[in-house]
Amino acid sequence: MRRTPLIPALCCAVLISSVAIADGIDYSTEPQVPALLQRLRIDDHFSEAELQQVTLALADARRLPQLIVQEQKAPERTETWTQYSRRIDDSRIRDGVALLHEQRDVLERAENEFGVPPSLILGILGIETRYGRITGGVRVLDALATQGFEHPTRNVFFFGELADFFALCRDRGFDPRTPTGSYAGAMGDAQFMPSNYRKLALDYDGDGKTDLWSLPDAIGSIANYFTHYAPDWAWRRGEPIAIPATLTNGVLPAGAVVNSRDNFYLAGDLRRAGVQPSVPLPDDTQLGIIDLALDDGSHEYWLAFPNFYSVMTYNPRIYYAMAVTQLAQRIEAAAALSP
């Protein structure tokens, strides 16, 4: 299923965008451009003709400073859990169950090959793009040029992604002026940044193209991501993600560290300290504590297994990982009740 076909790269020069001229910005003249070209020349063996095409594309890039504001005010950073959790809605659950049936063979193949369950892949697709319906309408070139040259705190990251984007376009035969994505330059149903697109995207439907706007390719690529992106947090086949917990005394144990990837506790110690998991666990099970503050002043507590922190490699925010987790669980429960 492909909604945004990618057009092969053009060999001819293009005119500088009227938008860029009106804004007074020509990114091809930025002081960092020589470093970008040198990086592409050395790391990715760009020819001088290919580097000239990069310069022409940068001249066509639009300056969109509002994207920096969007990145800084991303909802997983600025919303409360009460607000963010509204994404775990009936329509996403219903559509996730429908997609589970529609793509069952692909999802089962991904689980067999990588150990990543269908419900988690659907949780990612549901939170990221509503299963491929909303993949972003910003030109990736504009997003990464703006963020890479002008972001006040993350310009180094986005500059690297801009370089990977040009290499991706060269290697895949994309015109860099064509792909669209998020305000941060993430692409396709899986919302991969260019570096991950290059390293981890798969041709999972066997059509000879690695196309993350194709659901089968996105499904296989997500499973591949969780297996290979971060070896220390690689997905653990057959293990859970997170379970609810209650506090016997209504308060967390003194000194307990919550919402951290660096602090794990033994299930037996937690029970003795008044943190009760929703299902029985062996005493030596290692768990993190998740504390979700609600708008009414109450708290929702969960116990996180290592796989929860694997989900956080996709987006390092607790709310994001918890939304994916709970959506995955709700899809799995709904699917078990559906014919």
Automatic annotation (TrEMBL):
Record-level Gene Ontology MF annotations: peptidoglycan lytic transglycosylase activity
Statement: the UniProt record of this protein carries the keyword Nucleotide-binding: no
Signal peptide: 1-22
Pfam families: SLT_2
Top-rank taxon: Bacteria
Record-linked Gene3D superfamilies: 1.10.530.10, Bacterial muramidase (1.10.8.350)
Domain Transglycosylase SLT residues, every copy: 39-329
Sorted UniProt keywords: Signal
Protein name as it appears in the record: Lytic murein transglycosylase
Coiled coil: none
The UniProt record lists the keyword ATP-binding: no
Organism: Solimonas terrae
GO-annotated biological processes: peptidoglycan catabolic process
